[in-house]
Amino acid sequence: MWNKLTRRELLARTGLGCGSMALGSLLTEQSTAAAEFDPRRPLQSRAGHFAGVRSVIWIVMNGGASQVDTWDYKPELQKRNGQMLAGADPRTGFFQTSGKLLASPFRFAQHGKSGTWASEIFPHTCQHVDDMAFVHSCYSDSNNHSPALFEMNTGMSRMGFPCIGSWLTYGLGSENENLPGFVVMTDAQGRGLPKNHAQNWGSGFLPGVFQGTRVKEKGAPVDDLFPPADVTRERQRRLLDVANRINRRHQQAFAAQAELEARIEALELAFRMQMAAPQVMSVDDETAQTQAAYGMEHPQAQYFGRQCLIARKLVEAGVRFVQIYSGGTSNDNSWDGHLNIKQNHSRFALEIDQGVGALLSDLKQRGLWDETLVVCGGEFGRTSDSQGTSTGRDHNPNAFTWWFAGGGVKGGVHCGKTDEFGYKAVENRKHWHDLHATILHLCGMDHERLTYRFNGRDFRLTDVAGEVIEEILQ
Questions:
Q1: How far is CA 291 from CA 284, 307, 311, 317, 359, in A?
Q2: I need a labelling partner for 114 at 20 to 30 A (CA). Which of 20, 130, 234, 382 fits?
């Protein structure tokens, strides 16, 4: 017998039905945004849109390294030291510049068959210039650290967006079910986190399982990596089983909540990490020769060298994205050489050079070169004129250099140019969206197809811009 429905009951039933249809549609769109993405197994390894490298090691010269004191040699800058820079804009930097050209205090020389000019502060890294591709014409929209770091990591100069490590892990998953897909190492000497702190490696509106896992420089590398002494592994397994049973019962009542599956998976990953991570994040099992190559015996180079060695071990174990920050919070605790560029850059280059050089050599020797991409640079560059009366340089978003090495990269090439003083990118300018598009491409991902629906819009790392830098591809 047909039962009459009140208007309120009719609206309630049809409303719930439409809501379920909409939710199902959203979940379908999200699950197909990346190749074979399963929201119930978010870290499962997935194929890209096409062939690409397996892992990325991203080295950040936090604070903004000077292009004209590292990889962008400018003879005119050396000749015309102290002269006024025509068209100098004191608003370029964050403070105010003098307008007087400041010659680099470092000697430059050509290296390799490519004849690449390199500063004397990188004696180890410059041995690999024939395998590195340099993009000299980078520019950004931000001249302050916080928005510039957001832009470098997420493509946007404000908070709330996923970083590139999260996008890659979302798109490709991880190849080791016992380790995070995305690992971050901050300043090795404990000089503080970069501006924005953990938001630099946050997942934004992507599920939290894709955010970076920070490895600390002292003590246990990851919080709660080692269980309490009185808790056996068997007891811990039983406790986790109880928690999982409770979560599964809750999941049966709310089957559409894919986030709960990710949360259960995160608990399981944490349990598995307690077995796998301690060995991978230790260098004690490496030979004395390997440790020495990474600078373990050097009083300044040993800290960053250890991180580079751990990065190699992580990608060897199948971790998708490893990010290493050289330099702490600000000013002379980082590459932010406002007062004395020679003193600042000499110090930080000494810390990272041997480790970076050893990393590149080690990847080649272990057969990891073709499946690993290494990228390096800072959130912006430095001015060609001095900051006030100092021998330092201010922030410069109009010109900076990033280099690429490893799988899919054409070695010994130079893309783009700055003006004769290295002040502005003037030829083949490349925005962060272009750098991000290129990294995704080298990893086998089409930056226009890697999307995630949020608040009714399909978002991507490169927003509505970005072109792959074809000049540096093999």
A1: 9, 11, 13, 18, 11
A2: 382
CATH number at 167 reads 3.40.720.10
Rounded Cα gap, residues 430 and 447, in angstroms? 16
Does residue 330 sit in the same domain as residue 441? yes
Same-domain status, 401 and 266: no
Give residue 446's pLDDT.
98
Residue 103 belongs to some domain of the structure: yes
Q: Is 118 in the same domain as 266?
A: no
Amino acid at 328: G
> Domain check: are 243 and 118 in the same one?
no
Domain range for residue 355? 46-222+286-472
Say how many domains are in the chain: 2
pTM, rounded to two decimals: 0.86
Shared domain for 197 and 255, answered yes or no, is no
Radius of gyration of the chain (CA): 24
pLDDT computed for residue 96 by the predictor: 85
CA distance to 97, 136, 394, per residue, from 440 (Å):
36, 20, 31
- Which H or E element spans position 244? helix 233-253
**HEC sequence for 74-87:** CHHHHHCCCCECCC
Nearest-angstrom CA–CA distance, 99 and 23: 58
Low-confidence ranges of the chain (pLDDT < 50): 1-2, 10-14, 16-34
Instruction: Please indicate, yes or no, if residue 38 is contained in any of the structural domains.
Output: no
pLDDT reported for residue 260: 67
Other beta carbons less than 10 A from residue 458's beta carbon: 11
The predicted pLDDT at position 29 comes to: 42
DSSP letter at 387 equals S
Would you state the pLDDT for residue 23? 40
Q: Could you count the other beta carbons within 10 Å of the beta carbon of residue 58?
A: 23
Q: For 408-437, what is each residue's pLDDT tens digit?
A: 999 999 999 999 999 999 999 999 999 999
DSSP string, 132-183: EEEEEEE--S--SHHHHHHHHHHSSSSSSS--HHHHHHHHH--S-TTS-SEE
Closest listed residue to residue 318, CA positions, set 374, 262, 376, 372: 372
